[in-house]
């Protein structure tokens, strides 16, 4: 993936490597969904970088998904990191308006800190 100013990009790179491992392959069997992440440096909807976490194929790519993802999330860099590392409760972030979700809510509920590699050191 090309360079990015987002702190989230490091975590997504770790995830990309993690999905190539046996633990990552188990994850794709268990979840089997495609997520598009629109991550903005500071403010939702402005200068977003788009990533796809494909838990059907087991890959992370930069750029919009070709087709229809199961769920699309929009959040800021810091909010995404908070959720991915388990420091921020995703439901509370959604209620606060820090996350916007399009698509299947049941698919969105499977996007939890558990799917990220441990330890997620940044």
Automatic annotation (TrEMBL):
<protein>
    <recommendedName>
        <fullName>SCP2 domain-containing protein</fullName>
    </recommendedName>
</protein>
<dbReference type="InterPro" id="IPR003033">
    <property type="entry name" value="SCP2_sterol-bd_dom"/>
</dbReference>
<feature type="domain" description="SCP2">
    <location>
        <begin position="20"/>
        <end position="112"/>
    </location>
</feature>
<dbReference type="InterPro" id="IPR036527">
    <property type="entry name" value="SCP2_sterol-bd_dom_sf"/>
</dbReference>
<dbReference type="Pfam" id="PF02036">
    <property type="entry name" value="SCP2"/>
</dbReference>
<dbReference type="GO" id="GO:0005829">
    <property type="term" value="C:cytosol"/>
</dbReference>
């Amino acid at each position: 993936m090309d360079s990015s100013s987002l702190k989230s990009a490091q975590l997504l790179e770790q995830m990309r490597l993690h999905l190539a491992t046996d633990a990552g392959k188990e994850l794709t069997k268990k979840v089997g969904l495609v997520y598009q992440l629109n991550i903005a440096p500071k403010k939702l909807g402005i200068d977003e970088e788009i990533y796809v976490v494909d838990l059907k194929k087991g890959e992370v790519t930069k750029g919009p998904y070709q087709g229809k993802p199961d769920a699309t999330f929009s959040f800021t860099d810091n909010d995404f990191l908070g959720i991915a590392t388990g420091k921020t409760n995703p439901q509370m972030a959604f209620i606060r308006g820090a996350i916007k979700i399009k698509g299947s809510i049941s698919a969105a509920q499977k996007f939890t800190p558990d799917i990220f590699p441990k330890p997620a050191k940044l």
